[in-house]
Structure formats: structure tokens, C-alpha cells
Design goal:
CATH topology of the largest domain: Rossmann fold
Structural class: alpha/beta
Bound molecules: iron/sulfur cluster
Shape: globular
Distance between the termini: 45 Å
Helix content: 25-40%
Strand content: 15-25%
Strand order of the largest sheet: 7-6-8-9-10
Number of strands: 10
Number of helices: 9
Order of helices and strands: HEEEHEEHHEHEEHEHHEH
CATH architecture of the largest domain: 3-Layer(aba) Sandwich
Radius of gyration: 19 Å
Number of domains: 2
Length: 249
């Protein structure tokens, strides 16, 4: 008993106290800041997912794997360590030289009163890995560890869709997972949320041209939240959910 207490005192509090303002390491590749007037022709054909458009200059965070190739090649592109990347609008994920991180944070997530009222205190999510590489899935696991401790905000992953308020999709939705995904969605009681997590889920990512994916689900059902990344960092995920279900006003 004494040894346990000693260990607890020695370890201290391991969770990140202020998760909404948690520092991120400098090397993290996050929100892109684009500069006008610099020759970007060196980036021609460099982007593996077609996220980078050179004329006019823009980066689609829904397609971006944050690989850093364009940043290394060209001074017009700076992948900052801004990790709050989520949006309720697919269009807003497209960043142009006019988009500042401050403006993006203010407008990217549209907070709806009914969502805050319904899910603000408790949100249970079922995760569906629909053909991903396991990168996003591992980071989602990390959201519940002692460090990020997502459960303290009432947000948890649950084992059954029948106990869930929504689904979190990772992966590009492979043909083999298309039926299972829809089945899972139908098993979640209404009202329910659909959250796309990672470049694969949002756009197909590096698998977008594969003939073995089937993304019809996304045309059939409304999407509530898009969370970019490859993989999605736990701070990105937790802050995305908090920004959607908590009204800060
Ligand atoms: S960081 Fe994103 S936009 Fe740049 S090359 Fe990689 S995937 Fe393309
Ligand atoms: S977005 Fe990237 S990390 Fe996530 S499943 Fe796809 S390839 Fe893996």
C-alpha cells in the first residue's frame, strides 16, 4: 500500500491539464500557411495525394498527408505546428494564402445548439476502421490513455454501436468494409453523428485511386465533422470533438 502511494506521488499527475491549449512540438506538421508571390513550380507533381494545387495556390487538408514534401521544396509553404485542424465543412479544409490560422479557428467548426445540448456532457463513439493502415486507429487509442485522458470530458469509445451516439470512421472505406460500415451506422440509435478521421476517411488519401474502395456511404449519409491528419494526432482529435460539442460562449 505504502509502495503504491509512493509510486503515485512520484509519478504525479500525468494527464495534460489544459488540453485546449496544450503545447505542440515544433517539428509537428500541421496547419499550412501559404505565401503568395513565390515561385512554386518546383512543387510540380510533388504531392502524393493531389492535395496541393499550384494555380491558384491552395492545400486541401482533407487530402493532405502532411508529408512535408512541398514544404521542403518550396518557401511558399510552411506547415506550422497548429494542430487544431477540424472543420464541419469539407470546403473549409481548403487553405489558401488568404486563410490565417486565427480565422480558421474562429470559423472552421460550426457549433450547433442542439448538438451541444444533446452531446455536450457525454458522447459515446463507435470507431470503425474501414481499411486504414492502423495509424489513425493507434492515435485514437492513445486519446484514452493517462496522458490525453479523453474520458474526463465524457468522451469515450464504446464496444457496441447500440451504445454509441455516433461513429468515427478511419480508412478509405475498402470494398470489404463498406457493408459492415453501413450496418454499424444503422445500428446506432438516432440522432447520431458521423465523424471522418484522417485523410483516408475524408478523401481516400493515398488510396483514393484504388479500385478496391467503395465510398458510397459518404454520399448517402450526412457528415458532421472532418478531422484532417495522417495520422490524426490525439490533440487534434480531442480538440475537434470538444470544439463541436461544447459551446464556449
Ligand atoms: S504536405 Fe500535403 S500538400 Fe504538401 S506534398 Fe505532402 S500531402 Fe501534398
Ligand atoms: S489517414 Fe494516414 S494514418 Fe490514417 S489510416 Fe490513412 S494512411 Fe493511415
Amino acid at each position: 500500500m505504502l509502495d503504491t502511494l509512493k509510486a503515485r506521488i512520484y509519478q504525479g499527475k500525468q494527464f495534460i491539464k489544459d488540453i485546449e491549449n496544450a503545447p505542440m512540438r515544433e517539428q509537428f506538421r500541421g496547419f499550412p500557411v501559404l505565401k503568395k508571390g513565390i515561385d512554386t513550380s518546383v512543387c510540380e507533381g510533388i504531392c502524393p495525394t493531389g492535395a496541393l494545387n499550384l494555380n491558384p495556390l491552395s492545400i486541401d487538408m482533407g487530402k493532405c498527408t502532411f508529408c512535408g514534401a512541398c514544404e521542403r521544396a518550396c518557401k511558399a509553404i510552411d506547415l506550422t505546428n497548429g494542430y487544431k485542424l477540424a472543420s464541419t465543412s469539407r470546403e473549409k479544409l481548403i487553405v489558401t494564402p488568404e486563410t490565417t490560422y486565427e480565422d480558421y479557428l474562429k470559423s472552421a467548426v460550426e457549433v450547433k445548439k442542439e448538438i451541444v445540448k444533446m452531446f455536450g456532457k457525454s458522447l459515446k463513439l463507435r470507431q470503425v476502421s474501414a481499411g486504414g493502415c492502423n495509424g489513425c486507429e493507434m492515435e485514437l487509442n492513445a486519446c484514452s490513455n493517462v496522458n490525453f485522458d479523453m474520458g474526463r470530458f465524457g468522451i469515450d469509445f464504446v464496444a457496441s454501436p447500440r451504445h454509441a451516439d455516433g461513429i468515427v470512421i478511419t480508412g478509405p472505406i475498402s470494398e470489404n468494409m463498406a457493408y459492415a460500415l453501413e450496418d454499424c451506422y444503422k445500428s446506432v440509435p438516432a440522432p447520431k453523428l458521423v465523424i471522418l478521421c484522417g485523410a483516408c476517411a475524408i478523401s481516400g488519401g493515398v488510396f483514393q485511386d484504388s479500385e478496391h474502395i467503395n465510398r458510397e456511404f459518404l454520399d448517402k449519409y450526412p457528415i458532421d465533422l472532418y478531422i484532417p491528419g495522417c495520422p490524426v494526432h490525439p490533440l487534434t482529435f480531442i480538440n475537434a470533438i470538444l470544439s463541436y460539442i461544447k459551446d464556449k460562449k
